[in-house]
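REQUEST FORM: STRUCTURE PREDICTION
Request ID: SP-0412
Submitted by: Lab K.M.
Chain count: 1
Length (residues): 233
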Amino acid sequence: MSRRLAVVLVSMAALAACGSPEPQPSPQPSPLPDVNLPVAASSAPVKDARVDARWLRETAAATRIPTRALRAYAIAEATIGSDDPDCGLSWNTLAGIGRTESVHGAVNGSRVGDDGVARPDIRGIPLDGDGVRRITDTDRGELDGDRRWDRAVGPMQFIPTTWARWGADGDRDGRNNPQDIDDASLAAAAYLCDAGKSLDSGDGWVRAVITYNNSAEYARTISRTATRYAESR
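STATUS: Completed
RESULT:
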């Protein structure tokens, strides 16, 4: 596999946006790129952090999203909707990002287990400046196994400095683990809501997604994928 293809298959989430030791939004195009606001999927029935079994089964079959990943996206939407009701984030946007970043945790032979953890660990290529942003090691290899360069990690592809700021405990097991799709989905939801403020508006949604990855084509891919998931139901 070529290095360039590896970058495409395991894109560096927040690579342009969050690579500094003090995570902050990167400069964005002005005006914002022309990207269609995706269709918002109907919210999943979630109660006490449990997704309705029938909805989960039928939606997984219709969208071909693995059930374990879909559950994480649905719970992240419900959680952020309670914490930040003005955000308007739909689960299908998270699913679009998860599909693009890691094939819902199934990239390069990894699989998400019943506990939500991707095994083996999902790690991107070293961010050594060769076709990617240059980010020397910031976490002593604790998250990414690399003491020389940072790498994006987990199903939603967070770099260590961004995870240090946004890491979440989506499954309430007392740990913030970027390889856990529950934790990574909730962290991505919080990050997107902070960046876009109101994701049910075109500008807010685009601003959030290009802050996650500063590319108009990336945003268009997420929009198309999210819309396809919404219209599959």
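NOTES: The longest strand covers residues 46-47.
Reviewed by: T.R.
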